TrEMBL record:
This is Casein kinase II subunit beta. Plays a complex role in regulating the basal catalytic activity of the alpha subunit. Residues 17-32, 57-66 have a biased composition (Basic and acidic residues). Its main location: cytoplasm. One of its GO terms (molecular function) is protein kinase regulator activity. Residues 33-45, 67-79 have a biased composition (Polar residues). Belongs to the casein kinase 2 subunit beta family. SMART domains: CK_II_beta. The keyword GTP-binding does not apply. InterPro entries: Casein_kin_II_reg-sub_N (IPR016149), Casein_kinase_II_beta-like (IPR035991), Casein_kinase_II_reg-sub (IPR000704).
Length: 287
């Protein structure tokens, strides 16, 4: 159900920071006024439209309106028409895509730090212990992540659909923080580390040392993600603006240090050289 609608909301692989902030604020309000776990009996449909997360229309409507605008476009405006046709092609290509929700989510722009969590890991209730009390619409969010179709009718409002979508993102992030501490999860993150997917240390004397993602808190909505440099042992903001809104709890405080303990051969030598401020060639001394 959501796969076709996903095309309009995420064909570009990008979640707007404004939409994400608005939805997160709505989710915060829902967390404050709702019980720890939202029951299936209370709510109707557990399959939200991905397009609602973006505040956009489903793909068929999106294509029809775009096609209409193309037919009315001025022939002299070649650049705008070409760009519109490219976007239409992207949407059409996504329509027939049978990608899972997890793959779709991990391929969104800004989510490059995430690895794909195995379905088997998510389906093991032991691995999800305690999460139902942290995530509203837990059952619906879990079904969405696992691509389980709902037998319920379309009873959710647009706001509830957005909350379920945001809850699925939150639930996946918290599951992800646990998964990357397992041997299989670390192996997946190792591939990303070797490909420099987490970026390099901006410090000059670290000589482009690859970084690792880290959170400053294990509790959701406490802080955004940072990158940890194992050479200077300091943390920095990610370079990409699209990664600035990722919750640090989706990676946790333990991962980079356990990762370097597991793959000890990857731990670099500590940086010994540091910048020395000088004035006319003379070192500055603190009073």
């Amino acid at each position: 159900m959501y796969r076709g609608e996903r095309a309009a909301g995420g064909s570009k692989g990008e979640v707007g920071s404004v939409d994400r902030k608005r939805i997160n604020e709505a989710l915060d309000k829902q967390l404050e006024r709702s019980s720890p776990s939202t029951s299936r009996a209370t709510n109707g449909n557990d399959k939200p439209a991905h397009s609602l997360l973006m505040g956009k229309h489903p793909p068929d409507h999106h294509r029809d309106s775009r096609s209409g605008s193309l037919s009315k476009a001025n022939a002299s405006n070649v650049a705008d028409e070409s760009e519109t046709e490219t976007e239409e092609s992207d949407v059409s290509g996504s329509d027939g895509d049978d990608t899972s929700w997890i793959s779709w989510f991990c391929n969104l722009r800004g989510n490059e730090f995430f690895c794909e969590v195995d379905d088997d890991y998510i389906q093991d209730d032991f691995n999800l212990c305690g999460l139902s009390s942290q995530v509203p619409y837990y059952d619906y969010a879990l079904d969405l992540i696992l691509d389980i179709e709902s037998s319920h009718g379309d009873m959710f409002t647009e706001e509830q659909n957005e909350l379920v979508e945001s809850a699925a993102e939150m639930l996946y992030g918290l599951i992800h923080a646990r998964f990357i501490l397992t041997s299989k999860g670390m192996a997946a993150m190792l591939d990303k580390y070797k490909n420099y997917d987490f970026g390099r240390c901006p410090r000059v004397y670290c000589c482009g040392q690859p970084c690792l993602p880290v959170g400053q808190s294990d509790f959701p909505r406490s802080s955004t993600i940072k990158v940890y440099c194992p050479r200077c042992e300091d943390i920095y903001y990610p370079r990409s603006k699209y990664q600035g809104n990722i919750d640090g709890a989706y990676f946790g405080t333990t991962f980079p240090h356990l990762f370097l303990m597991t793959y000890s051969h990857l731990k670099p030598q500590m940086a010994t050289q540091s910048y020395v401020p000088r004035v006319f060639g003379f070192k500055l001394h603190n009073p």
